């Protein structure tokens, strides 16, 4: 018990009433309670809510340490930036359906966009066209490609003797990947912001 409280950073307030805890302290206490008995499977639902910067860092280290010891950590969260720093594998859900179940690196790689500028851009784009790739021409000499790596595009250009002037791959965030996967499954969509009416 004392080891878990200390690990959660709550040793200095161990004797205080829980009702006086802040949201972040309460969240730490809940995570500490989940660690009792050193479970081999840890399931956490929105555990980052209310944690400050130090708390989020502590939580990341906790998850990694637990996983290194051979335990499985299941984390459910809408805070993609934190999930991106912790998770090895991602399951994306939309309206109760599994939209993607893959390693984090694979999910992010699928969301990469490559900007290409070449002397025979249209010819290169036609060579790269395939069902799992999205290619959009941006002029006579340039296009963007999703679903293809810069390495694949560069290799194809070399084989065809096409001169590349620019080959820039930009990896999008996990949040971008999620929005792309769940675009048709979003239950609530935000519209343009509206100002509250002013009184005369």
Please explain how this structure is put together.
The structure is a single chain. With 200 residues, the chain is α+β, with helices and mostly antiparallel strands. It has two domains: 2-107, P-loop containing nucleotide triphosphate hydrolases (Rossmann fold); 110-172, Alpha-Beta Plaits, CATH 3.30.70. The protein is 38% helix and 22% strand. The protein has eight helices and eight strands. The protein has helices at residues 2-7, 23-35, 53-68, 80-86, 104-109, 121-128, 150-160, 174-182, and strands at 41-45, 72-76, 89-94, 97-103, 113-118, 134-137, 142-146, 164-170. The strands form three sheets. The protein has a four-stranded antiparallel sheet, with helices on one face. Helix 3 (53-68) links the parallel strand 1 and strand 2 (72-76). The chain is elongated, with a radius of gyration of 23 Å. The mean pLDDT is 82.
Strands, count? 8
Element-level helix/strand string: HHEHEHEEHEHEEHEH
Strand content: 15-25%
**Nearest-integer average pLDDT:** 82
The number of domains? 2
**What global shape is seen?**
elongated
SSE-based structural type: alpha+beta
Computed Rg = 23 Å
Summarize the structure.
The protein is of the alpha+beta class and 200 residues long. The protein has helices at residues 2-7, 23-35, 53-68, 80-86, 104-109, 121-128, 150-160, 174-182; strands spanning 41-45, 72-76, 89-94, 97-103, 113-118, 134-137, 142-146, 164-170.
């Amino acid at each position: 018990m004392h080891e878990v409280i200390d690990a959660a950073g709550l040793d200095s307030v161990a004797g205080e009433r829980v009702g006086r805890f802040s949201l972040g302290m309460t969240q730490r206490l809940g995570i500490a309670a989940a660690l009792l008995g050193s479970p081999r499977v840890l399931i956490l639902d929105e555990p980052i809510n209310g944690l400050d910067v130090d708390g989020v860092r502590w939580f990341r280290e906790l998850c990694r340490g637990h996983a290194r010891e051979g335990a499985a950590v299941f984390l459910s969260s809408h805070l993609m930036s934190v999930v991106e720093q912790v998770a090895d594998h991602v399951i994306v859900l939309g309206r109760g359906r599994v939209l993607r179940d893959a390693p984090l690196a694979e999910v992010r790689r699928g969301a990469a966009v490559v900007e290409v500028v070449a002397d025979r851009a249209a010819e290169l784009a036609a060579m790269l066209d395939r069902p799992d790739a999205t290619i959009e021409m941006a002029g006579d000499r340039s296009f963007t490609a999703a679903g293809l790596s810069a390495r694949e595009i560069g290799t194809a250009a070399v084989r065809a003797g096409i001169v590349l002037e620019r080959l820039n791959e930009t990896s999008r965030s996990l949040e971008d990947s999620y929005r792309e996967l769940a675009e048709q499954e979003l239950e609530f969509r935000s519209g343009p912001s509206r100002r509250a009416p002013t009184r005369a």
